[in-house]
Amino acid sequence: MTTNARIKVAVIGAAGRMGSTVCRAATAAPDLELVGTFDLGDDLGDLAGADAVVEFSVPGATLANVRHCIERGIHVVVGTTGWDAAKLAELRDALTAHPGVGVLIAPNFAIGAILMMRFAEQAARFYESVEVIELHHPGKVDAPSGTAARTASLIGAAREAAGLGAVPDATTLDPEGARGARVDGIPVHAVRLRGLVAHQEVLFGTEGEQLTIRHDSFDRVSFMPGVLAGIRGVAAHPGVTVGLEHYLGLD
Ligand SMILES: NC(=O)C1=CN([C@@H]2O[C@H](COP(=O)(O)OP(=O)(O)OC[C@H]3O[C@@H](n4cnc5c(N)ncnc54)[C@H](OP(=O)(O)O)[C@@H]3O)[C@@H](O)[C@H]2O)C=CC1
Ligand SMILES: O=C(O)C1=N[C@H](C(=O)O)C[C@H](O)C1
Fold it and tell me: Where in or outside the cell is it found (predicted)?
């Protein structure tokens, strides 16, 4: 009888809302072994000999943490937000010396959120108007959410490919910024409300009809199947992958 070795996993940001949930999920998974937990101020060292690290910290710290892993040849599954084009370029640069290392950057690990982004991308070319509303718990430090930014970018690219122009909007007077942020030309609005976890609506409009695509994460366990799929798949995906959909056959 052959027994497969368990994947050794360490978690950075382990004391946080997501990190602590990942620790429980990894401990419960029979094919994973939680070997190390790290948080702010801890020496990451050799990350307790982990094969793969899960990183859920803060946007200002994630690049340095991921670099630390890459330099030690350790695969990384990243959920932390704030990965703009400049940070991704630095990451790709760091990986050139470690071509066998896999890094997954996933703006959202919930399967429904991944499908929401895909459906929004598909719908984009059919509608003149679109707006993204993201709604989160008030402990969230970044706005707009990584999911909303990614959704808007995907919609923006799909609109451009379809030859659609700017979304119609006659606003010329908005001293308080009531029309929200713009990401790749798409209006994005952020709500912070006690009691919420992570939610998003994508509103599409054209003459005489509206399409609303909505996803709700009511509990952080919603992210765990995706995180575990990331841990199990990351070694087989060397280089940088943005979006768990590429591990799920959705690309
Ligand atoms: N991709 C996805 O599916 C999801 C992504 N997220 C993202 O994950 C990130 C974390 O979210 P959440 O768990 O709610 O946040 P929390 O604030 O609850 O957790 C972050 C943890 O990281 C710690 N931390 C801060 N700085 C460092 C550092 N330099 N090194 C290691 N740890 C550090 C914090 O410590 P301290 O509190 O002492 O500062 C805290 O314990 C956010 O960017 C969020 O947007 C969240 C949910 C799902
Ligand atoms: O901070 C959160 O909670 C979440 N962050 C991610 C984001 O910014 O998109 C994913 C999810 O929305 C929960």
Answer: Cytoplasm
Is residue 56 within 8 A of residue 62, CB to CB? The reply is no
Cα–Cα distance list, 143 to 82, 139, 228, 232 (Å): 10, 11, 26, 30
**Per-residue pLDDT tens digits for 38-93:** 999 999 999 999 999 999 999 999 999 999 999 999 999 999 999 999 999 999 99
Distance of alpha carbon 19 from alpha carbon 41, whole angstroms: 15
What global pTM score does this model have?
0.96
What is the C-alpha to C-alpha distance for residues 145 and 85, in angstroms, rounded to an integer?
16
Q: What sign does the dihedral 89-94-59-121 (CA atoms) show?
A: positive
Residue ranges of E strands in the chain: 7-12, 32-38, 52-55, 75-78, 102-105, 129-136, 181-183, 186-192, 198-206, 209-217, 239-242
Cis, bond preceding 168 (omega within 30 deg of 0):
no
Q: What pLDDT score does 251 carry?
A: 78
For ligand 1, the distance from its centroid to the CA atom of residue 164, given in whole angstroms, is 37
The whole-angstrom separation of Cα 196 and Cα 218 is 7
- Look at residue 2 and tell me whether its pLDDT is greater than 80: no
Q: Residue of the nearest CA to atom 12 in ligand 2?
A: 198
Query: Residue 211: what residue type?
Result: L
Q: Would you give the DSSP letter of residue 217? A: E
What distance in angstroms lies between residue 29's CA and the mean position of ligand 1's atoms? Answer: 22
Number of H helices, E strands in the chain: 6, 11
